Amino acid sequence: MNAMHAIIVDLEATCCDAGSIPPHAMEIIEIGAVAVRAGDGAPLAEFQSFVRPVRHPPLTPFCTQLTSIQQTDVDDAPTFPEAVLRLRAWLTPFSPYCWCSWGDYDRKQFRQDCAFHRVAFPFAGPHRNLKTEFVATRGMTKKLGVSEALHALGLKFEGTAHRGLEDARNIARIYQRLC
Length: 179
Description:
The protein has one domain (5-178): 2-Layer Sandwich (Nucleotidyltransferase, domain 5). Helices cover 37% and strands 20% of the residues. It has seven helices and five strands. Strands 3-2-1-4-5 form a five-stranded mixed β-sheet. The mean pLDDT is 95.
């Protein structure tokens, strides 16, 4: 890999367990990212932003319970276009980079939100699906969640699950083992 850095990204989005928010209408409500050195995975910097949803502004009780993100967190948050501008500015010093997520959901959700808001996709570098890489390097067939992958490495999840920055920090710990 010729990228000098990797950007570990995790996001949270509006969700519902009763079907009131279809997948195509889900919106990013938190962006978490950790910049790491590509060679050894050493953390360099972090980014976190809540994002104000516009299609389904009230968070569902399920979403709040799952993510611990409160309505006041998103009511006072920047819009998606504003959050993307901040993310782009934060990414600039780390170029060239690849960006990584646990699975393909984050990439697809970013593309969906960028299309809806008519803003350019924020990532310049190639994407790496660390979930797929993790199972391939370990000769597994079942794709594991972040907590399961950490456990397989003899590590424990640190922080609160389903929070963008804290998930990104834990994915960065897995990334260090993949280096």
